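Summary of Year 1 activities. Much of the first year was spent building the evaluation harness for sequence design. The harness presents a backbone, in tokenized form, and records the residue chosen at every position. We chose the following record to illustrate the format because it has been used consistently in internal testing since the harness was completed.
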């Protein structure tokens, strides 16, 4: 199949994350609003152009106070930096439908390479005859690499917020 432009169906897609809390549990969250610019042959993603743009205002951890803190200057400072962007720079096939995507992740004013594993989940037709394709990705990065260092020491040792952020992405897309 030739390289095709794909439009993400946001109602069937998600970008989620988790981070350790108090060294013993995880807090999970999601970004409700994002867009993706994808130009790819889904059967061979090695030549794909992939860019994901996340609206930081849409962060949701199911706690309004925490979300407000994350949007503020201690973390994302969304008034100055309203978007987070991931732009793939190298895609390597590692197995059937499996890939390693390395790309530039920009948070606030810092850009660093982040590698994720991605899977082409396949194609099908929706009930209206439209072609749809599914993609998933997982990865992790250190928030401190992006200047997100706010934390608090715990009396029992350790810190309030872990440094490692785990990402999980599910995307369903249709040809443009």
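For this record, the design step produced the sequence shown next.
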């Amino acid at each position: 199949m030739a390289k095709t432009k794909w439009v993400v169906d946001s109602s069937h897609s998600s970008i989620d994350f988790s981070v350790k809390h108090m060294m013993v549990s995880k807090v999970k969250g999601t970004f409700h609003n994002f867009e993706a610019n994808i130009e790819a042959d889904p059967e061979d993603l090695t030549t794909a152009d992939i860019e994901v743009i996340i609206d930081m205002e849409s962060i949701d951890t199911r706690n309004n106070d925490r979300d407000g803190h994350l949007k503020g200057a201690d973390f994302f400072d969304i008034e100055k930096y309203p978007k987070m962007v991931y732009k793939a720079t190298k895609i390597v096939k590692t197995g059937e439908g499996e890939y390693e995507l390395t790309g530039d992740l920009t948070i606030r004013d810092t850009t660093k390479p982040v590698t994720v594993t991605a899977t082409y989940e396949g194609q099908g037709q929706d009930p209206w005859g439209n072609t749809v394709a599914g993609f998933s990705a997982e990865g992790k990065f250190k928030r401190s690499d992006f200047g997100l260092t706010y934390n608090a020491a715990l009396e029992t040792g350790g810190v309030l917020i872990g440094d490692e952020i785990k990402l999980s992405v599910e995307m369903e897309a249709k040809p443009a």
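The CA atoms of residues 110 and 146 lie 6 Å apart. Quantitative recovery figures across the full test set are reported in Table 2.
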